Amino acid sequence: MKTKRVAFFLLASLLLSLGASAQRPDAGTQVVDSIEAQHQAYADVALQIWKFAETGYQEVKSSALLEARLAAAGFSVQKGVADIPTAFVASYGSGKPIIAFIGEYDALPGLSQEAVPERKPVMTGAPGHGCGHNLLGTAAMAAAVAVKDWLASDHRQGTVRYYGTPAEEGGEGKIYMVRAGLFRDVDVAVSWHPGDSNQASTGSNLANISAKFRFHGIAAHAAAAPDKGRSALDAVEAMDMMVNLMREHVPQETRIHYIISNGGAAPNVVPDFAEAYYIARHPDMQVLDGIWQRITDAAKGAALGTSTTMDMEILGGDYNVLPNSHLSGLQNKNLQRLGGLKYTNEERAFAEALQKTMLGPVRPLGSEEKIQPQSSSITPASTDLGDVSWNVPTVGLTTATWVPGTSAHTWQATACGGMTIGIKGMMLAAKTMALTGVDLFSDPSNIQKARAEFEQRKGNVTYKPVIGDRKPPLDYRKQ
Amino acid sequence: MKTKRVAFFLLASLLLSLGASAQRPDAGTQVVDSIEAQHQAYADVALQIWKFAETGYQEVKSSALLEARLAAAGFSVQKGVADIPTAFVASYGSGKPIIAFIGEYDALPGLSQEAVPERKPVMTGAPGHGCGHNLLGTAAMAAAVAVKDWLASDHRQGTVRYYGTPAEEGGEGKIYMVRAGLFRDVDVAVSWHPGDSNQASTGSNLANISAKFRFHGIAAHAAAAPDKGRSALDAVEAMDMMVNLMREHVPQETRIHYIISNGGAAPNVVPDFAEAYYIARHPDMQVLDGIWQRITDAAKGAALGTSTTMDMEILGGDYNVLPNSHLSGLQNKNLQRLGGLKYTNEERAFAEALQKTMLGPVRPLGSEEKIQPQSSSITPASTDLGDVSWNVPTVGLTTATWVPGTSAHTWQATACGGMTIGIKGMMLAAKTMALTGVDLFSDPSNIQKARAEFEQRKGNVTYKPVIGDRKPPLDYRKQ
Amino acid sequence: MKTKRVAFFLLASLLLSLGASAQRPDAGTQVVDSIEAQHQAYADVALQIWKFAETGYQEVKSSALLEARLAAAGFSVQKGVADIPTAFVASYGSGKPIIAFIGEYDALPGLSQEAVPERKPVMTGAPGHGCGHNLLGTAAMAAAVAVKDWLASDHRQGTVRYYGTPAEEGGEGKIYMVRAGLFRDVDVAVSWHPGDSNQASTGSNLANISAKFRFHGIAAHAAAAPDKGRSALDAVEAMDMMVNLMREHVPQETRIHYIISNGGAAPNVVPDFAEAYYIARHPDMQVLDGIWQRITDAAKGAALGTSTTMDMEILGGDYNVLPNSHLSGLQNKNLQRLGGLKYTNEERAFAEALQKTMLGPVRPLGSEEKIQPQSSSITPASTDLGDVSWNVPTVGLTTATWVPGTSAHTWQATACGGMTIGIKGMMLAAKTMALTGVDLFSDPSNIQKARAEFEQRKGNVTYKPVIGDRKPPLDYRKQ
Amino acid sequence: MKTKRVAFFLLASLLLSLGASAQRPDAGTQVVDSIEAQHQAYADVALQIWKFAETGYQEVKSSALLEARLAAAGFSVQKGVADIPTAFVASYGSGKPIIAFIGEYDALPGLSQEAVPERKPVMTGAPGHGCGHNLLGTAAMAAAVAVKDWLASDHRQGTVRYYGTPAEEGGEGKIYMVRAGLFRDVDVAVSWHPGDSNQASTGSNLANISAKFRFHGIAAHAAAAPDKGRSALDAVEAMDMMVNLMREHVPQETRIHYIISNGGAAPNVVPDFAEAYYIARHPDMQVLDGIWQRITDAAKGAALGTSTTMDMEILGGDYNVLPNSHLSGLQNKNLQRLGGLKYTNEERAFAEALQKTMLGPVRPLGSEEKIQPQSSSITPASTDLGDVSWNVPTVGLTTATWVPGTSAHTWQATACGGMTIGIKGMMLAAKTMALTGVDLFSDPSNIQKARAEFEQRKGNVTYKPVIGDRKPPLDYRKQ
Questions:
Q1: Cα–Cα distances in angstroms (integers) from residue A128 to residues A49, A423, B27, B401, C162, in the given order
Q2: Which of A315, B9, B102, B361 is the most exposed place for a label (fewest CB within 10 A)?
């Protein structure tokens, strides 16, 4: 059966390419042109979501807009997947291969900003797209639609999917979607992220685990009967101290950080409740698991040593991204084919003004025109895409949606994402991913190689989401 | 309605004083009878304030009611003293001696409770008179008025004052009034406090100092650049640790307690701000001063050792009460003369029901009928009366306004203060203090002895309010 | 006046003894006189042991000397009891009651000192009798012999015992003797201790427990592979920190102190071994047990939180002394009968010279002539007599063997114990205890009352030695 | 006997150099052959020093032997330089360039071991050459002599020096020699170190600073008057804690490690003295300086916060090695020319037996035959050669003197250094360095390029020895 299908697929490819080469532009040109033809339409979608600026799990209007556009483009849309109202999967075609484009669309609290090169919130304290997810979700849609159109026009077999993944910023929507099995049959996941340069990296990032450690003691009047009390704050400080001692004895790439999210109610009462909020990170989830066990032991030891009790609530945990050199190679090839960005005079003036608001030496202007060489460095950040990448061969990409030198999670990033500079970067990403999509559908060996590398890198690790059976924290941005 | 009741009250007073002058009973009998004659009127005032249940510096209606009654009784009232709207001094007479009766009338947050022997808030979360200050302020007024009436009828020289002192619970109104010089010419201050037994103690309590230690560091992304950050929370924990080490090296009666009132904003950011809220106590303010210096050094050392900066805001500080055995002897004598309280059947049923809500072995029912022997023990609590006592010979008193076994700052205390059990205790206190007032005006040697003992106990200590030039924290209960 | 009084006393004594000898002097006079008759002999024994100056469990010559004298006086001596070569029990008589006199004879390291009022070691660094146990052991022997002689001359039934208890200073010889059952049949234990005043106290002292907490980690090169190491020193510091946090939450009379007896071998190696040496104390062993449990939990919590392991070695533990007011009353009566000490001119000069070497305000000269009133205060020290007192009704006594103002464990104490001042105090103690012995043998109600009080004070506590099944640490002073 | 051997050695040298000049091989071949001709003589020297096994600053016989050999070879020897009896400089020739060969010869405590592949100390607890410095000093001498012979035979200008640098293991002899100006006029310093592979690295290592922090408090009886004491151990623990907090906020390559070298004398006394012994390291001394300042601030903050005082004694501090790629390139070229080592059957059997005593996966046998590619990694160790390298262009080298898999500072390393395997590696190092010496004297551009790179790398850093004006710690290994 399998052999027959492959044979058919090869034959079909051959015929198609023969036919294509005769009168039709090559598939790559076709998808790139089809995206460019929708430049204004996609810009409108991105700017609309930029204005919605909805935070994690509250992306009602943003997800509805994307769903509507995908439906209009011929996708069938399954809404509210994985018990998350703003998560969805849009699908076109049937059978294998199944290629997924990953979309995000949540904004960040407090980063409201007009599209001007000076600090000026649209509404003080309101959310803003400081991580460029309005561009992220739109480019992924553009790529999916372009590949779908090409598939359709070419009568090719296979499935194109768009995954609407909410709450990347701390809500970890993708992990709940992975847990729900939504990625089970996917062959390759194609994704990207806004940035301040153009690059198809083969590197990775940090796995992380976050949790609240809650300690329970016995209240007592701190002046009259402190000996009758058992301080939960003592436990928090003892845990912290043991973790600080531990810093010497973990690999140096480890990161452990905490706040005391509840340090007692009133100084004249021995606190019967106190809470520490921890995040730990390491480039390798397997190593991090061992470190996390020791952090948990520090919490247990602190409870034991202070006559208190402890319970831990895991808030989340992202796997590190499992890189895929073969897939990155495709993205890099396609990015090179398309080249960097060219600012207009107005954009350059905007960029120069914006750079003046940044501290320290920054990436120079002009670098947006170039494609950075591939790199395998570790980014000190975490993303729920990591969990996708341990289940499906996954590839990323960065384009210069932000003026060189711009950091993520800044008002500067919000500003760029609301004007033409952001849109240009978004269009480059959409086209690059569409080309990669074509590569994957056109040449089955790409998928085979990506899968083989995936299996080799994954080794004998059994993926197990850190979140366990926790429900999606749909309210984590409310309050 | 109100006007009518006042008119009746005035008439009754008139009749009583006429009757009194007719047969000329001894001064003690006269003041006791005059108070008892107003039983219902004073009960009404106390219950009115109980219903107002206004917290510190918000006692607008409570202070206005007391001011009005004192004015109606012939006192001249100076309102809004010491830059505090709800502080006042009511005065009658002229020249020496000057005897002060001390009134309080602030309620406590969260202790709203109906006058029933089971937990039942009038309004959930609302304030309530859990420390009996509705009784406190009213009894002091009753004593002041009775002594004033006697002075007037006897044409004696001297001045009776009533000090309306707000915000005893954490706001330390008296200290600002002391600082403003309002007690400068007073010869003796007579005070009392609600309790669950009848006693004229010669003991003392704990001086205290409270402050917030605020640390300032440098924020940085905790995963990407923790080495660029300087954690203010590190400083708080380092300070706490040094204070915990210090516990071994302070006199064992010392109390030091703290909460972490701000332990960082988000775990993925190195906290650039963190705050610890400390209270320290010791039976002797002079010793406490030295301990406080060391706590401050711990804060400075923590800032130095964590590359952060620190500033401290003193929130308050009460002197320990300087006891006066001579004055306590007078109160004890007068308390013995009057004897304890007698519950009705209904009151006893209430008391029995209330005791069932208390944990552990408690003072037995029936003890409200007795007068406890004098004691010189140290109460592990603090009061702004302490500052008065280092400026003026001061005497206290406790009566059983609460069912035996009741602790201060409980709903049980609120309940008792809103019904006849509280009123009975209040009347006993008013009469005892009035008798002491008569003793002081009648026999100048009492004042001389009290002053001599005061000077001897005070020694060469120069009183200096801990609050320095801080303004009254009029908003400390708002929020 | 004074001289007259003494003269009268002597005359009275004379008359009394004359009268007594006529018809058999009273028993008290008999034992007092028999001790005084041996003044020089007992002084020789005490000074001999003073010169031996043997430390805990090394008291070979000292114990042999006492054994020889007791044997010579007619006692049967059982040597090397409780597996301790220098422990012994000397016994005379048979049957009930059984009265025990408690002797000690160990010296202290480093306190070698000639019997002169300026610092001058016999041999620098050598041991010396800085706690007066040369006097302690001799006086107890004198009392035992005198009571035995009286029993014998009077043909009374009963048993007199002398307990030779070594290593009171840290070796806790008595506890091993108690554990061996040697006190099981004793009715009353009579003891005393050298001091700088004369007093029969009804107070108590502090129970204590001491132990070493040993932590085991994993060594690693601290520069090359600190993440491979698990620091045992981390565990010690974590334990210490949790204990310091605990200080706020134990009764204020508690004492917890520690050193880090092993803090790692070399800074460039992650320590795989570290050790903390703890002592905890409280006036009540039952309370201390609970606190010790929490200290142990802190050690366990520290091991858990630092990925190390822990083992604890209990080094010792003294019960607090269970006082016996009835027995103290007898001692007090007898001490009053005998009166204080009278210095010669030479002794006074010595005392004055010695006081000049002391800091701060000290007990005045002349106080040695007085008997201090009984007191029930808590002495902040520990003794293995505590364990005896929970098994047998026990009584203590202090006499002024040291110049007023002298502290225990000082060269000044050693100096006094080697000359007539120490001997005078010793003789007073011997006579007082002998009189108490006579009281106990003469009047059975004394023993009954002592026993009844003992049972009442002990309550339902089951005595269990802290040392468990540990062997006597015979080498603790070697090294 | 010794004299005869020396005479023979001199004669042999003479004959060889005569022979050499006859046929005039290339300079490289000449120096390599001249070293090989002395194989047994150099082996004898190395084994002699191996047997001396003298620790730092105690290398009296070892330095005397090397001095004698260098004098015999025609060098003029200046003994006892820099106020260090076992430091010396041997010099031959005059004028520029001046090329220095660096020798070390101190052993390590406790690593005594026979030259057998199982643990067997020559004398238990005695020192041993666990870091191969017997080979180090001998190879440098062989290179110096060979280059000198070639210079002499070629009548070239320039100076060859041998620096006898004692106490590399913790005594930092070179730094005192640098401070004394002994390297001021040197053009290039050529050095090497024993290892388990052959490599001419361009990497660096860790700068370090070590010191003792001594805290002084106030002693007090820990049970009777803990409030009178100020614990120096508290200060040590507070310092440690603040340093542990600091770990999060230093670059991740930083290493900070400590022991508590004095943690108090007795638990019942509040410690008035305690001491922490710290080492800190970082790849860059300039960064380390800033970190050290913060560690010192933690110590000061701890003293302030615990009412104690602190003094710090700097024990030492090595600069990181400033690499020189040009010079490493020469060493690499010469190492490649000579090739790796070939074991005999007996050596291979020894190596196999030795590898069986090692844990974990180790470098495979056979790797000694290869030359490792150059690498720029950071070795997590420190050496006083670092200070030389900031004053003079300096180059290192590693050869496989130890069986692959052997770590420094082990008995296995001692064993290898006492038999033919160590000697073979030593000979390879001697020849490589001699070839490099020839390169430097032959082609002035090598020195110019090395200098230029040195200046560029050094930048505007002003070298300042960490030790300040501290005297050489000549007794640091006594005790």
A1: 10, 16, 78, 59, 90
A2: B361
